[in-house]
Design goal:
This protein has helices at 7-25, 33-37; strands at 42-51, 55-56, 59-60, 64-70, 75-80, 90-99, 107-118, 134-139, 144-149, 160-165, 171-174, 184-186, 189-192, 200-206, 216-222, 241-249, 254-263, 271-281, 287-296, 299-308, 332-338, 349-357, 363-369, 379-387. It is mainly beta. It has one domain (39-387): Tachylectin-2, Chain A, CATH 2.115.10. The longest helix has 19 residues, at 7-25. The radius of gyration is 24 Å and the shape is globular. It starts with 6 loop residues before the first helix and ends with a strand.
Length: 390
């Protein structure tokens, strides 16, 4: 006879034995490795806004190739890729007004220019014509802006990542770049470094905790492969192997932490230009968004990807990316949105940032196009709702 004090245990084991067939034979939800790597994100397209062609404080407003957002004061900063051809190299401060009369579908009502700020070189002077090609911009917790230049390979001018004062535009410091990024030519042919108009287009900051200013992380990537990394299998205007840099930043120091391989997708048929135009950190767990843009006979094609860099190999010591690369794990990618399915005419989308909180509490995502100072192109803002845990 079983003692009463052992009956609860007896029934517990009986229940476990009864459940074993179900646990082993029932169809349980399967979670793929990809689902464990990537966040569960979705995008809702909300609206498009076209900034009218205009002059502002004696500068032509155009070539807006990068955008960043200050959530504390609800303002945007955008950088122009003017090589000081039309006016000195500069960034603008913008105010975006949202129409939330329909809380489920807010839209951009108006964008107003607030100010323009000239950026200066190490000598405190505006950049001379043709010596800089600003592309990426990111607001730091140091009340500064980091701005990238693609460099001008045809003139041997190297790319840069530099920090500028938010209020005055004055140069504060430059980050050290590995020598492999500096353009070098032999017999009039480029043999090393970033290609013309293919340098540091993409820039973002990460690892920023509320109330903390140090250290944080800076990430930048080339628009296409370095000259020495390109090959017939991975050409600069094809499924290139780009380089991605990761820095640790504090108020007084910067350190290159690692470098990774960013694999570009195969461009659509007929594409003349194909490159990585922007990256955006979306959490502190190594997840990002990336923007890949192509242009050809059929116009612009743009795709948005989610990235995970946690398992990517450090490629700092790899001289070039030609041929097979055994043991090298590139940055992982997952298609988030093909923007050509939005049924709107896309322009030259190059900028991307998280924007203001929407009425439903979700974060907004803002994309920006560079009109190349071309009267036939437009400065296009696209507003999205980003759904998911970010």
């Amino acid at each position: 006879m079983v003692s009463d004090r052992f009956r609860p245990i007896h029934w517990f084991f009986a229940l476990v034995l009864a459940l074993i067939p179900c646990l082993t034979g029932c169809d349980l939800p399967q979670v793929s490795a990809e689902e464990r790597i990537f966040l569960n994100l979705n995008l809702d397209f909300l609206s498009e806004y076209q900034l009218p062609k205009q002059e502002f404080q004696s500068t032509p407003v155009g070539g807006l190739s990068g955008i960043t957002y200050d959530r504390q004061i609800n303002q945007f900063y955008v950088v122009s890729d003017d090589r000081s051809d039309f006016a000195p190299a500069r960034f603008y401060t913008l105010n975006m007004v949202l129409d939330a009369s329909n809380p489920k579908a807010p839209k951009i009502q108006q964008i107003d220019l607030q100010s323009v700020t000239t950026i200066t070189n190490e000598d405190g002077k505006p950049y001379a014509k043709g010596e800089v090609d600003p592309e990426g911009i990111a607001l730091s917790p140091l009340n500064t802006l980091f701005i990238t230049s693609e460099g001008i390979a045809s003139k041997g001018i190297p790319p840069f990542v530099r920090e500028f004062d938010l209020q005055t535009g004055r140069w504060k410091r430059s980050l050290n770049l590995p020598p492999r990024y500096t353009p070098k030519s032999e017999d009039g042919k480029l043999v090393q470094g970033v290609g013309d108009n293919l340098g540091f287009e993409a820039l973002t900051l990460g690892g920023i905790s509320p109330g903390a200013i140090e250290p944080f992380r800076l990430f930048t990537a080339t628009e296409s492969a370095l000259t020495q990394d390109a090959s017939p299998e991975h050409p600069q205007q094809g499924a290139s192997r780009n380089r991605w840099l990761h820095y640790s930043i504090d108020p007084d120091h910067s350190l290159l932490v690692s470098e990774q391989l960013y694999p570009m997708e195969t461009p659509p048929a007929g594409a003349l230009y194909h490159g990585l135009t922007e990256i955006l950190a979306i959490d502190q767990g190594g997840h990002f968004l990336s923007l890949e843009r192509s242009f050809g006979a059929n116009g612009f094609a743009v795709k948005l990807y989610q990235l995970s860099i946690g398992s990517a190999t450090d490629t700092t010591k790899i001289e070039n990316f030609k041929g097979s690369l055994p043991g090298v794990q590139p940055i992982r990618k997952q298609l988030l949105l093909d923007l050509n399915q939005l049924n709107i005419q896309l322009d030259n989308l190059e900028g991307m940032t998280l924007g203001p909180q929407l009425p439903d509490g979700s974060r907004s995502l803002v994309l920006l196009s560079d009109d190349n100072f071309n009267p036939q192109q437009k400065t296009q803002f696209l507003l999205f709702r980003l759904r998911g845990k970010v």
